[in-house]
Write a structure and sequence with these properties.
- By secondary structure, the chain is mostly helical.
- It folds into two domains: 50 residues, Homeodomain-like (Arc Repressor Mutant, subunit A); 146 residues, Tetracycline Repressor, domain 2, CATH 1.10.357.10.
- Helix content is 79%, strand content 0%.
- The chain has ten helices and no strands.
- The protein is elongated and about 65 Å long.
- The N and C termini lie far apart (63 Å).
- Pfam families: TetR_C_7 (PF14246), TetR_N (PF00440).
- This is Transcriptional regulator, TetR family.
- It comes from Shimia aestuarii.
- InterPro entries: Homeodomain-like_sf, HTH-type_TetR-like_transc_reg, HTH_TetR, Tet_transcr_reg_TetR-rel_C_sf, TetR_C_Proteobacteria.
């Protein structure tokens, strides 16, 4: 199968996986059910993804791809760290509070095996967090921010950017944020981070 045709087919299968996930939950979702929804063969799904966990790992990885690519690209420039965070913020908000992220998180919360939650952590947070650490370390090296523990600084940035938005989206108490909202919140998070960590300790 040609690469372009395969890419289109994968998008159709992954769209079908989200549709089944939303109606059946992770525990009730099967490769056969996804294949039926996508009008694909079971053999195709198993050849491409291995198993159900492999398919959902691909969904999470694709969801995080734009954020990872942005961070890798920016870290290869001489852009200052705070400007990188400002441009990253809206993408990170979309990643964590978008409709597909909400569907995955709702399913993970209902998955008693913990399998989907582990996949979300490994292919999402654990893949992006080390890149965020490098951005914060650049800010410290350039004297923009002052902190002892990099992981704590990254956690503070994420708290300022995300807060309780993700959980409110998951429980249906927060509408999907607009582009303007994401831009404003990203700028505010960087401003507060600089206020809190911009002054050297005495």
């Amino acid at each position: 199968m040609r690469d372009e045709k395969r890419s289109i087919r994968q998008q159709q299968i992954e769209t079908a996986a989200y549709a089944v996930l939303e109606t059946k939950g992770y525990g009730g979702t099967s490769m056969a059910g996804i294949a039926k929804q996508a009008r694909a063969s079971n053999e195709t799904l198993y050849n491409w993804y291995g198993d159900k966990q492999g398919l959902f790992r691909a969904l999470v990885t694709r969801n995080a791809a734009e954020v990872k690519a942005h961070l890798v690209e920016e870290l290869d420039t001489d852009h200052d760290a705070l400007s990188i965070l400002a441009s990253l913020g809206p993408k990170l908000l979309n990643l964590l509070t978008g409709d597909r992220a909400v569907a995955l998180n709702r399913a993970a919360a209902a998955d008693h095996s913990g399998e989907l939650g582990a996949t979300l952590s490994q292919s999402g947070r654990e893949a992006v967090f080390p890149l965020l650490e490098k951005v914060l370390e650049r800010a410290r090296d350039d004297g923009q921010l002052h902190f002892a523990e990099t992981a704590d600084a990254v956690g503070l940035y994420l708290d300022l950017l995300i807060g309780d938005l993700q959980i409110r989206r998951v429980i249906g108490r927060q509408p999907s944020p607009s582009e303007e909202f994401c831009q404003t919140r990203a700028q505010r998070a960087v401003h507060h981070l600089e206020t809190l960590l911009g002054t050297p300790p005495p």
